[in-house]
Amino acid sequence: MPFKICVLLIVLFCSLKVYSNQNSEFCGWGAVFHSQRLNEKLGLHLDVQARSADEFDYLKNILVRPGVTYFINKEMNVTLGYAWVNSKFKSDLLDVNLTEQRIWEQLIYLQKIGDVGLNHRLRFEQRFIEQVQGNVFSQRLRYFVRTLLPFSNQTPFTEGIFLGLQNELFFNVQNKVNGSFFDQNRAYVSLGYRFKPSFDLEMGYMNQRIKQRTEGLTNNILQLAAYTRF
User: Nearest-CA neighbor of 124 among 145, 102, 146?
Assistant: First the structure.
């Protein structure tokens, strides 16, 4: 494996030892990510996600995130969007549905390192969080990097099997809801198939490390995701 790919793998997954965790859960996520090009400069974004509770016990989260994209050039674009997140918390003592609404802004930079393409994403979120005891406003910064490694030598890659690698770091920059600047990290590896340039389907494993006020939480996530581009 080329040296640069080895370095990338280390960078993506070194966060698995960010801090020690005491709790662990296993759940499933399903997601659809869609981008729609309207013209040379404008486009639309939409992703919809459903996430289960521990051991697939019940549907815990539904997320709907639309946005409008402006393409600066072939390598850079910016998006302004809104997100609606519904969360269900269920136990012997609690059964509530809470809603979080977000405004978000992001910058995407597409980088080429040899034959490897990197997708860098910087996202800033204004979060309006409903809680059992009053609502909270918070702001969060996220940095995401992703690459696809095709199993074939196609240039450009239009069809076939690929390995997906990504990592995302979350930082609380205002009103730290967990009492910490560091919020969470999501490291992800997947195996996917590109049916055509506009459609990918992949399944993978995500390790989500969440910093909580008193102790950490590790989510072991099985994710099925579809990507469409028109």
Answer: 102
Query: Whole-angstrom Cα distance, residue 79 to residue 33?
Result: 14
Strand boundaries in the chain, DSSP class E: 23-37, 42-52, 59-71, 76-90, 95-113, 116-129, 136-150, 160-174, 182-196, 199-211, 216-229
CATH number at residue 36: 2.40.160.40
- The answer to whether 87 and 96 have CB atoms below 8 angstroms apart is no
Whose structure tokens read 């013209």? Answer: 39
Query: Which residue in the block uniquely carries the two structure tokens 């790919």?
Result: 5
- Asked if residues 187 and 17 have their Cβ atoms less than 8 Å apart, the reply is no
> How many domains, the chain?
1
Helix or strand or coil: residue 135? coil
* Residues 48-58, mean pLDDT to the nearest whole number: 96
Give CA–CA dist 17/206, Å, rounded: 14
Closest CA to 190 of 210, 156, 220, 165: 165
Whether 41 has a pLDDT exceeding 90, the answer reads yes
Torsion over CA: 189, 193, 197, 200 (sign): negative
Going 205 to 94 to 49 to 104, the CA torsion angle's sign is negative
Q: Once rounded to an integer, what is the mean pLDDT over residues 11-15?
A: 54
Q: Fill in the DSSP letter of residue 57.
A: -
In 10 A of CB 209, how many CB atoms? 22
Say if residues 31 and 46 touch (Cβ distance below 8 Å).
Answer: no
Domain that holds residue 161: 3-229
